[in-house]
Design the sequence.
């Protein structure tokens, strides 16, 4: 279910209200660096919500946008075999923990690596897929940031 819409017929006019609640994600710290030496944690909305994580790269337009002075993202390309394996937790219903195994350096070098987050509620896809720009490194003792879930009403 991508969106939930309420339609009311009042008199001779139809009013459409978008009442969807869309989960959004933010990194706990300002850095977009992730390390393969530490697990990646996502804060869950509730016990009925789970997440599928993988990586994707952006497809850019061929012309620079005059307003932003950047190339616009026109699509996404999934990186093959990039799904992250969930680490079984000891009944921690607040978080989902994933294992990072690769750095995907060819994508990070070109600044075109995105963490693809698919939200599921009771096993069914919920909301739109979201992308966070990241760099995956093979670093020492740095701990990965917690990815926090936030709700936004449309």
Sequence:
């Amino acid at each position: 279910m991508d969106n939930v819409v309420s339609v009311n017929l009042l008199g001779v006019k139809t009013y459409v209200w978008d009442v969807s609640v869309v989960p959004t994600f933010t990194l706990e710290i300002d850095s977009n660096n992730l390390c393969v030496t530490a697990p990646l944690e996502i804060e869950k909305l509730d016990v009925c919500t789970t997440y599928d994580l993988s990586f994707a790269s952006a497809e850019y337009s061929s012309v620079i946008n005059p307003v932003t002075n950047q190339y616009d993202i026109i699509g996404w390309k999934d990186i093959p075999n990039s799904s992250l394996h969930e680490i079984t937790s000891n009944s921690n219903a607040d978080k989902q923990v994933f294992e990072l195994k690769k750095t995907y350096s060819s994508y990070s070098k070109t600044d075109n690596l995105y963490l693809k987050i698919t939200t599921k509620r009771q096993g069914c896809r919920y909301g739109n897929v979201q992308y966070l720009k990241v760099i995956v490194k093979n670093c020492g003792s740095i701990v990965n940031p917690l990815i926090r879930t936030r709700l936004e009403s449309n």
